[in-house]
Amino acid sequence: MPTDNLIGRAALVLRALSVTGEPGASTSDVARATGLARPTAHRLLAALADEGFVDRDQRSGQWYLGPELYLLGESAAARYDVTQQARDSVHRLAAATGESAFFSARRGDETVCLLREDGDFPIRSFVLYEGARFPLGVVSAGLVVLSLLGDREIDEYLARVDLTERWGAEHGPEPLRERIAETRERGYSVNPGLVVEGSWGMAAAVFGAAGEPAWALTLTGVESRFREPRRSQMGALLLKEAHALTTTLRQRAEVSRPESGPRPGGRAGR
């Protein structure tokens, strides 16, 4: 959705490029994805290119994320990158079930897939892939994160976001609230082929230091592999791995947290 804030519009452009991968995106593609007018999208792309945040192939005219973002990402990784800790959980899920396993992070009103590992079952779902973004409430990762937010935050989100235009009537407020209630009762979410028919997904939330659902572990595959009692078994496995990863990430946060103490000229840290 377009925003009047310049930084917000630049962020929209960068996010649009982040999901295109190869072979990049044209100016028109970026304008469509962001809802910005084409001249506005072009001005933002050109300004970001001047700073190295985007790059343009002079032969094809396609835009890509630029080298400056890579350098900034390297600097931020030490504080925010949790994929190394999550990789073992994703591997165990894929190996134990034969399905495709994923790790996603919440970013505002979306979840972003950060890791994927395929199991040994030859038929796979390709709804999720590294870099894929979905709104909260869409795909199993987005559903479990949304479901475990506070009631007020859920109400505010459903009041301002219309998921039905792109994702269909099953993503309207009432069906979503039913799936939220089911997810809270089970502890994990189930997406019964609502994004792509026959492609099922399940997810469990991984919690941040403040107790908020910040990430999700997911299993996806074909419908025939997600019937009971196997679905319950995979749900229990997801919950086990999500709990273990939550514990690991909290321990990491405790280790990296600076010790609080008296500040010069002030009171002790609280």
Word description of this protein:
By secondary structure, this protein is α+β, with helices and mostly antiparallel strands. It has two domains: 6-72, Arc Repressor Mutant, subunit A, CATH 1.10.10.10; 82-255, GAF domain (Beta-Lactamase, 2-Layer Sandwich), CATH 3.30.450.40. Helix content is 47%, strand content 18%. It contains ten helices and eight strands. The chain has helices at 6-18, 27-34, 38-50, 67-80, 83-97, 139-147, 151-160, 164-167, 173-186, 230-256, and strands at 54-56, 63-65, 100-107, 110-117, 133-135, 189-192, 199-207, 213-222. The strands form two sheets. The protein has a six-stranded antiparallel sheet, sandwiched between helices. Strands 1-2 form a two-stranded antiparallel ribbon. Strand 7 and strand 8 form a beta hairpin. The protein is globular, with a radius of gyration of 20 Å. Residues 4-67 form the HTH iclR-type domain.
Keywords:
six-stranded antiparallel sheet, Arc Repressor Mutant, subunit A, WH-like_DNA-bd_sf, transcription regulation, alpha+beta, globular, DNA-binding IclR family transcriptional regulator, transcription, Beta-Lactamase, WH_DNA-bd_sf, 270 residues
Helices and strands in order, then pairings?
Elements: H1 6-18, H2 27-34, H3 38-50, E1 54-56, E2 63-65, H4 67-80, H5 83-97, E3 100-107, E4 110-117, E5 133-135, H6 139-147, H7 151-160, H8 164-167, H9 173-186, E6 189-192, E7 199-207, E8 213-222, H10 230-256
Antiparallel strand pairs: 1-2, 3-4, 3-8, 4-5, 6-7, 7-8
Helix pairs in contact: 1-2, 2-3, 5-10, 6-9
